Amino acid sequence: MDVEAFVPSVNQSIETSVEEIRVQVAEPLKDCFLNFGICSEMSTCQLPKDRRDQNHLVRDLGCREGSDTCNCKNGRCVKDSRGNWKCLCLPRHSMKGKDCELCDCGRNGKCIFAETFSVQTKSIHYQKKCVCDTGYADKYGTCTECDCGADGTCSYENGLKRCDCKIGTADKEGTCIECDCGADGTCSYENGLKRCDCKIGTADKEGTCIGPCSSNPCQNGGQCIMDGENFKCQCRAPFKGENCEIGLCSSNPCQNGGECTMDGENFKCKCRAPFKGKNCEIDPCSSNPCQNGGKCTVEEQNLKCECKAPFKGKNCEIGPCSFNPCRNGGTCSIDGLSFRCACMSPFKGILCETDPCSSNPCQNGGACSVDGQGFKCYCKSPFRGKLCESGPCSSNPCQNLGTCSVDGQNFKCSCKKPFTGNLCETGPCSSNPCQNGGTCSVDGQNFKCSCKKPFTGNLCETGPCSSNPCKNNGKCTVEGQSFKCECRKPYKGKNCEISPCASNPCQNNGKCKMDNENFKCECKAPYNGNLCQNGPCSSNPCQNSGVCEVVGLSFQCKCKEPFKGKICEIGPCSSNPCQNRGQCKVVGINFQCDCKPPYEGKQCEKDPCTSSPCLNKGNCTVNGNSFKCACQGPYSG
């Protein structure tokens, strides 16, 4: 017999709970047995007293219409489209499953059924599950109050309360309370007291399991292993070292500021732009990207070329020759900040743009023809020369701006007035009328002199020497813009105006007279000498700053106080007033003695014995800078 089961609606979850109802093929059933109900004559099933907590009656549809073909509880037996019997459950009731069983978890939860199909038994299994409200849990199919606190999940197991506490908490009398023994211990409560179960090698110290591995000394995922009272690190490849602290990045293999990261058992460098390479060792400047002597630098993570003039461009690749300025196969080369073209013959020009005939080199109507690497001119008669430049007028035979014209095989001059002659050579300046290097120029029908400085006049005849400035028969010559006199001896000066007597060389009123090319002094008595310089006072006879005056044929001294005498030789020190080799000097109108030790006094007359220092008629004598007593005795001292 086939069995067709109803699958729960979408909002019903299919889960496994403690209560499981197995659907089997039922034998023909009797009239009424819905949830232990009693079938009455009116075909109404009423719940027993122990199941009237929801105070409702269940209509017994199973009492009619083929109730003997299926086991419908709280539902009606109907045939499906295939002719199979199935249960149609009452609406608005928590009745689920194949047989419309009543599902109830109490007021503090929701009851759901989940269907599962067994392939082995080819049957459908139903599981009842209570989805309880917060603070409640499933206890024997009823949501019963259950609370372990904010840090735990409460449930019932075999009717007993169970608290599943979060990490760092433990069950203390039915509530999850904070409980921590550290990474090396398991924390719990026993009879309300905290208990730490510590790992081997660690010990409970004030509620924390402490051991050599407690501080997690092993770095980089290394495993800490107890070794007596010490620890040993079992490092993950490729790390090593006592604390697994040494890795492939420890030696800073990434150059130029690259960031080193581990990649399995190898390392990987994350390079800063613009560096690259396994170790960021490749500098973009190492390939010398800057051309033409440019300097490569890294600026703000980018490569930059500092170009030497005249080059420019990202890589200094652009220069004066970059665009091939030289034409006609010319070779371009750098020349300072510009370029120079080496032209292939016969081309020339800055850009080799000119061929031999481009400039029309053939003169006087000559025809130009390129000849190999040069050119050739075919001249018209009477012209000749490489460029047909030579002709009757080539030498410019016509002077003074005369116009030369070819006349057959010869030439003819057309002269401008006032010039005449075959070559226009005759004019107002032909006789060279301008003197002293003046330049003659034609002025209308006459001439005009342009004089060189310092000459003036119509013919430049007047100059610095025209006024005969040199005296005493001196010779005048023009020098620059002025004149120069060559003087006859003994005269001198710019104009030879100075004679030897002009400076009054004769002293003491002597008279100067010329004597041929020199001079002579006639002296007045009592003076003599070449310049009358010698007199009675010439020998400075007056002493002590006395002033000497000539008187008649002799001299007289005017003495300064306190000096006197004929030559002021008598003064305060003349009588040698300073005794005992004292040094006399004049001070004002008096004298002052500088005494030698041990002497003192105005005239150095006092010595150490002057005060009679020797007692008892002792004899005093000067001894160096002091005195010495010769005692008469019995005296001593």
Automatic annotation (TrEMBL):
- In its keyword annotation, does this UniProt entry include Cell membrane? yes
Question: Which coarse location class describes where this protein primarily resides?
Answer: membrane
Which Pfam families has this protein been placed in? EGF (PF00008), EGF_TEN (PF25024)
Q: Which UniProt keywords apply?
A: Calcium, Cell membrane, Disulfide bond, EGF-like domain, Glycoprotein, Membrane, Repeat, Signal, Transmembrane, Transmembrane helix
Q: Which cell locations does it reside in?
A: Cell membrane
Identify the residues that the record assigns to the EGF-like domain, covering every copy: 210-245, 246-278, 281-317, 318-350, 353-389, 390-422, 425-461, 462-494, 497-533, 534-566, 569-605, 606-637
Tell me the GO BP annotations in alphabetical order.
Answer: Notch signaling pathway
Q: Which SMART domains match?
A: EGF, EGF_CA
State if DNA repair is listed as a keyword.
no
The UniProt GO MF terms for this protein read: calcium ion binding; Notch binding
For this protein, the record's InterPro entries field holds: EGF, EGF-like_Ca-bd_dom
- Where are the bilayer-spanning segments? none
Q: Where is the signal peptide, in residue numbers?
A: none
Q: Write down the CDD domains for this protein, in alphabetical order.
A: EGF_CA (cd00054)
Going by the entry's taxonomy, the superkingdom of the source organism is recorded as Eukaryota
Membrane topology field = Single-pass type I membrane protein
Name of the protein this chain belongs to? Neurogenic locus notch 1
**Gene source species:** Araneus ventricosus (Orbweaver spider)
| Name of the gene this protein is made from | notch1_3
